[in-house]
Specification:
The complex is a heterodimer of chains A (about 350) and B (about 850). Chain A is mainly α. Chain A has helices at about 10-30, 55-80, 90-110, 120-150, 160-180, 180-190, 195-205, 255-275, 285-300, 305-335, 335-360. In chain A, helix 4 runs antiparallel to helix 10, helix 4 (about 120-150) runs antiparallel to helix 11 (about 335-360) and helix 5 packs antiparallel against helix 8. Residues about 190-250 of chain A have low confidence and may be disordered. Chain B is α+β, with helices and mostly antiparallel strands and about 850 residues long. Chain B folds into five domains: about 40-160, Beta-grasp domain (Ubiquitin-like (UB roll), Roll), CATH 3.10.20.30; about 190-205 and about 215-310, 2-Layer Sandwich (Alpha-Beta Plaits); about 325-460, Jelly Rolls (Sandwich); about 495-645, Jelly Rolls (Sandwich); about 655-835, no CATH class. Classes of the chains: A mainly alpha (about 350), B alpha+beta (about 850). The interface between A and B is large, with 35 and 38 residues. Chain B: Keywords: 4Fe-4S, Electron transport, Iron, Iron-sulfur, Metal-binding, Repeat, Transport.
Chain lengths: ~350, ~850
Amino acid sequence: MRINRAPHIPWLIFVLLATAAATLLYCAQFHPERVPASVRFFGEKPPERATIGGTPLGLVLGSVSLGIFLFAAMLGMRKRLPAPLRIGHVQRWLRAHIWLTLLTFPLILLHSGFRFGGPMTTLLMALYGVVMVSGIYGLYLQHKVPTLMKERLPAEIVYEQIPNIRAQLCAAAERLRKTYTRDRAETRSRDALAPAAATALATASLPDVSPHAVFKTPTAVEKPMGGATIRGTPVAPAAIPGTDVAEPQEEIGFDAPSEATLAEFIDRQLLPYLNARRGEKFRLGNGRYADDTFRHLKLRVAGPYRARVEEMQGWCDERRLLDLQTRMQHWLHGWLLIHAPLSFVLILLTGWHAFVTLFKY
Amino acid sequence: MAAVIPETTDGLFVRDDDEGLFSRDINGQLVRLDAPTQADYDKQVTLQIDGQEVTVPLAEPLKDANGNLVQDLDGRTTPRYTTIYDAAVKLYVQQPGDEAKIPIPTLCHLPHMKPVAVCRLCVVQIYGQKRGKRAAERKLLPACQHPVKNGMEVFTMNAPGPDGERVRQSVKVVAELLAADHLKPAPQPELAKELAPFNELGSATLRCGGDAERFRMDVLSKPPPAPPERAGRRPLDPSSPTFTVDHSACILCDRCVRACDDVMENHVIGRTGKGNTAGIGFDLNEPMGESTCVQCGECMVSCPTTAITFKPVAKVEPRRHDGRAEVISAAELLRDPVFAGVPPKFLLWQQGLVVRRQMRRGQVVCRKGDPGNTAFIIKSGKLEVAVPLSHVESSQGFLGGMLGLGRAPVFRAQLTAADVIAGEMACLSGSPRNANLTVLEDAEIWEIRRNVLDRLMRLPTRRARFERSYRDRSLDLVLQGSQLFQGFGQEQYKQIVDYLRGRLSFVRVSPGQVLFRQGEPATDLYLVRLGHVRVGVQRYNNEVRVLSRGPGTIFGEIGLLGLSLSDAAKTPEQVDAALRTALENAGDDLTGAIQSGVRTATCSALNYLELARLGRSDFLQMVRQFPVLRRRLVEQSLGSLRSETEFNPLMSEYVEQGLYEGQSILVLDMDLCTRCDECTKGCIRQHGDDSHGLPITRLLRDGRRFGDYLVATSCRSCTDPHCMSGCPVDSIHRGKHLQIVIEDHCIGCGLCASNCPYGNIFMVPNRRRIIEVPDADDPGETNMIAQLKAATCDLCDAEGDRSSPKPQCVASCPHEAASRVSGPELLELVTARRAGGDSEFL
C-alpha cells in the first residue's frame, strides 16, 4: 500500500480544500473578526454559545464526521459482499477510507472548538486519538514493511503454511536424531571388529536426510529475487517427513564421537529451537551466534559429518526466516487488532454522544 | 513427438527404432539390412490384388502415431516400405467410407499405429517370381506388414479359387478361435446392447463366415489355475471410475499397448503373464484404478473387443452460439462418410461432440479473434471466408483517409461442401480465429470439437486433405502476419506474396529442437507463424543474451545477408548500398553474389513451432527484386547486431520462467502487496461452490518472482496452451477472452494438470459428481468418492458474458498490487522499474 501514488493526489487535494473550507466556515461563524469582511457569511457578531458542537455549524461538522466514521467502517463489509452488491472498486473504497478519515481530524477539532469538554467527550477524543494513531501507524507499516519483506525474505511463503513448514523442519531433525541413537552407536562399535558386517549395517542405517533427498518445502528452493537485495542467509533445503523414497546415500565412515556430538547438539540445541513457538530467544535464533555455533560444531565432528552440520544450519536459517516472516506479518497486520475493535467502540460511543447531545440537552 | 533426424549414409537413412525390423546375431551384430532409402519413393511397384492391378511407390514416408510425417528440419522424411495393405487401401478406397470395401480384415492393425501382425486375420496368399518362374509363398503372410514387390500377385479372402479358399479357411478358423474365447458382451448390461454391433471381433467373425460357438470352451471365463501373485491375466477389473476392464475379452492385439505407449506416450499398459495367463497389465499388473493410468480413454477407443469399455460420463453440453443447434447422435455420425473410420466407441462414449447448425444467409459462423475451439464440416450451402488484411495500406484516397472512411483490404474466398472443412486451423493450433466466416447461402454445418478433429486427422484420407489445406492456409497467414510485410501498399504486397507463395515451405518443430547453432553457415530464413523461438547468443562460452521471438517475427536474416558483429557500426545506407551493388553485379546465380554468412545466434524451439522457411537463393532473389524489403531487413539486422552487445539480465529469467507465452499473468507488486490474501479470498467468493460443490481457489499467492513482482500460481492463458493438448473428452478449451475454461464433463484424468508446466491447474474432488468405486481392501464392497475435476482461472467469465474480463483477484486487491498483464508487458514493467522509470506519483 502506497499513498504517494497518482490516484491519491485528487484525494489529497480534496482533503486540503475541505479542511480549508471547514476552517473558513468555522472562522466566519465563531471568529468573524479574524476573516475578511467578504467572507463573513454569518454576520459580524459571534453567536452566544455554550459549546461549539451544539451550534448548527458544529452539528454539521459532527454529523459529517460521524458519517465518515460509518462509511469507514463499511470497508470491511464491502469486501465480503456478494458480487451484485459490490459498489465501486475496493481500491477506491480504501482510498476514500484513508483520506476521509484523515479529514475527520480537522472536522472534529473544529466541531469540538479545540476543547475536550466533559468526561464523555474527553473519552471520545482519547478513543478517536488512539484509532487515528493506530490507523496512521498501520498506514505507515503497510507503506514500508512490504518492501522490507521483499528484500529480506527471498523465499517468502504463504503465511498460513508456516506452521507446516516448521513441523517439517522438526520432523527432519527428529529423523536425523534417530539415526544417532546410542544403541546404534554401540552396535556399530561392536561390529567394528567385523568390517563387512559393519559396512553393511552402516549403509543400511545411514541418516536418511541428505542434500540429495526430496527436500522440497515451498521455501526450500530459493526463489529468484529479480534484483532485490538479498540480506537473508542463503536457505538450505529442509526435509519432508515420512518420505519413504529411497535416495542414494553418500558413503561416510562411522565415527562414534562425531555422532555422539551431533546427537547431543540436536537434543540440547537444535530440537528445542526448532520445536519452540518463538525462536528468537534461542542462541540459534540469532544468525551471528548460529554461524559461530555451527562453525565450532564442524570442528568437533569428522569430515564426512560436516555435510550434516551444514544441513542442520540450513534448517536453522530457514527457521529464522520463517520467524522473521512471522514477525513482519504481525507488524503488517497486528495494528488492526487495536484499530478495528476500537473503531467500532468509537462509532458506538459517538452515536451515543450524538443521541445524548441532541435529545437530552 | 520429437522429430527424429536420420543418420545419413550415402543416401541411406537408418533410424534407430528401425532396428526392430532386423535380426541380430548372438553378438548383437546386424545380420540383415534391408532398409528403404529415399530413392525408393520414386520406384513404382505394380502388383495384382485379386486380379486387379495397382501401382504404388516402393516406399512411403514414415508417420508417427498421430499420423504426422516424421521429418527433419530440412523436410526430409524417413522412408518405410509400402505394405500390401497400403496397396489395397489405394486400390479400394477412393473416398471416405470406402474402407469397408478392403477385402483384408484386420483386428490388430490401425492406420496410425505401427503394424505388429499379431492377429493374423489379414493374411493373404502371395505369388512371386522364383528363378524366373511364378511361385507361391509357402506360408500365408500378413498384409499389414509385408512389403510390396514388383509383379507380386496377392489373393485375399475375396478371391475365387483355391488360393482364396485357403485364405478364407485360415482367416475363418483364426476368427472363430479368437471369438470362442473372447467374444463377450460388455460387462455393463446397459452398454452391452449398444456396443454389440461395434465389437470388431464379432464383425470380423461374421465377415469371415465363422461361427463363434464352434470352438467355445469357456476356458478363460474361469480363473486360471492358481496364478502367482502379480502375474497373469486379472479377473474383471471395475476399479477405474471411468472404464471397465474385462481381461477375459482381451485378444492381445496390443492396440491398447500401442495407444498408451505411442499415441499418448503414457507408458502405463504392457504385457503380463505367459501362456494362458498372458494378458495386458497396468503398471506392474495393478488394477486400472490403482495404477498410474490417467484415464485418457485412448486404450478403450482402440480396443477392438469389449475388453476395455467405458462407464457413462457427464453429458457434453453444446456450446452457445447463433442459429439452431442440435446434437447429432452417434448412430448418424457412424453412417456419415466423413466419420467412417472414427472408432464407434469414441462417438458412443461422449455424445454431444458434434452438433448440427442450420444457418441462414448472412449469419456469422465465427469472427476473427474468437476462440477457435471447434471446426466446421460443411454439409451444404456456401460460406465466405473474409480475412481483413489490416497490415496492408488501404487505398482509400486522401479524403477517405481524412474522414476515416477507408477500410483495410479484405481477402475473400468461398467454401462449399466440396471443401469439407473450415475453421480447422484455429482448432488444431489452439489459437484464435484468423478469419470471419459468414453464410452466403443457407447452410448446414456440423460443428466438431477438437478431439473429434484429432480423430479425423488420424485417418489417412481425411488427414491428407485437411493437412494440405492447413499448410496452404498457414503459409498465407504467415505472410499476412509477418512484421516484415507490414505497411506495404496493396500492389507491392501482392507482388511480394506472389513471389513467396510458391517458394516458402512449411515446417513444424518440436519443443527443445535446435533450428541452427551459432557459427553454422546460414542457409534459410524463417518466419514464425505459431510458437516462440529462443535466440541465445554466446560469447566466450557464456550465453550473454537470450531473446524470445513470437508469432509474426523473422529470424535467420543476418547470416543470409552476410552480416556479422563487425557490421554493427555501419549505417543502414552503407550496408544497403553494398548489398545492392553486389546483387546487381551478379548474374542469374545469386548464391555467389554475397558471401555466405554464419549464424550469429543459436535458435531453438521453446514450444511447438510452425514456421515458413525460405531458402538462401530465393531469399537473395527476393532482396534483389524488392529493395524496400531489403532495406527493412538491413535495418532489422543491424538493430539486432547492435543490441547483441547489450546484456539484459532479465531476459534469460523471462524465458526460463516461460513468461513470454503468458497472455494474462497474475502478478503482485511486492512493494505494494500487504499479504492480506484478499486476492485469494476474492477468487473463492466469486466462484463459490458452483463448479466443485465446495469453495475453492483458483490461485495461490505463491510462486517465483520476476523483478519486484510475484508471478502468482494462476493460469496465464498461454498463447500455446499446453494444457489443451490431448484432453480425451475436450473439456478444456479457450473462452471468449482466450482464457482457459474447464467444462463440467471433465473426467478428472489430470492430463491438463500434468501438461501445464507452471502448475496452474488444480485437480480438486468434485462433490457434485459422486461415483462408486470398489473398495481395494474389502472385495465386494464399494466406496462413494468424489470424482476429481480440474480447476483453473477462467478470468471470472467462464460463460463469456462480459465484454472484457474482470478477474476478482485483481478487483479484490485494495492495495493496487495485483494486476493481470501479458508477458511482454511484464518485461516492460520490470525493465522500466530497473531503469528507474517507475517513480512515485506515476
